[in-house]
Design goal:
Largest sheet: 6 strands, parallel
Shape: globular
Number of domains: 1
Order of helices and strands: EHHHHHEHEEEHEHEHE
Helix content: 40-55%
Strand order of the largest sheet: 3-2-1-6-7-8
CATH architecture: 3-Layer(aba) Sandwich
Number of helices: 9
CATH topology: Rossmann fold
Number of strands: 8
Length: 216
């Protein structure tokens, strides 16, 4: 049976937040006004916007020329600002899993426009699961396409992917590498949960449950 190894993106495969890098880039390129970014940030901090809603608002400005142009924009800045922040230990662990015949997937709350170039760069092709933004006639609608890939949403996407690939769920879930306590629901389901550079909360959970803890 195929064994799946999931890797979170932010603070796991990369040593930063792809979302912060994204916001900095659209401000620098003047794709979104500073007041709007501030407004979204405040609503996000007040929890009146979740991560998916914040991205849906931003993409209406960052991707205002349509999905085709936006793909070029994301490909360029992700290569310039995110690729250099990929952690060597993460790349090595991906290589190890591949050598064992495991199926490696990125599993991230980040939007597809960011995750896709990273997956391609790491030689994973289309093996990634993430948050999707709705597109109609090449234009972003400001809505999500499916559940946000966050918390229990990661279970939804992992389960759907297993069904599409005729793999048993959760039996095929071998490994999950992540830094965030929000991923605890999926960590509970995999055979080998691994806390990478864990937040204080995740470190406490991992210690209690005797999960592996690593520092990259």
């Amino acid at each position: 049976m195929t064994t799946i190894a999931f890797f979170d993106l932010d603070y796991t495969l990369i040593k930063t937040s792809s979302g912060i890098q994204y916001v900095q880039e659209i401000i620098w390129q003047r794709r979104a006004p500073l007041w709007l970014v501030g407004y979204i940030a405040v609503r996000y901090q007040l929890k009146s916007f979740d991560y998916g809603e914040a991205n849906a608002w931003l993409i209406k400005y960052a991707g205002r020329y349509g999905q085709t142009e936006a793909k070029q924009f994301f490909q360029e800045w992700v290569a310039r600002r995110v690729f250099p922040k990929i952690v060597a230990a993460g790349k090595a662990k991906i290589a190890w899993h591949k050598s064992q015949g495991h199926r490696v997937l990125i599993l991230s709350a980040s939007i597809e426009e960011i995750v896709r170039p990273v997956a391609e760069y790491l030689g994973l092709g289309t093996d990634y699961l993430c948050t999707h933004l709705e597109v109609v006639d090449n234009n972003y609608t400001g809505m999500l396409d499916g559940p946000m890939c966050y918390g229990t949403g990661k279970i939804h996407w992992a389960k759907s992917w297993c069904a599409q690939n005729n793999l048993p769920f959760p039996e095929a879930l071998g490994y999950f590498y992540t830094d965030s306590s929000s991923d605890a629901p999926l960590l509970e389901l995999v055979q080998h949960p691994v806390a990478v550079n864990p937040s204080r909360k995740l470190a406490k959970i991992a210690t209690t449950k005797n999960w592996s803890i690593v520092q990259w």
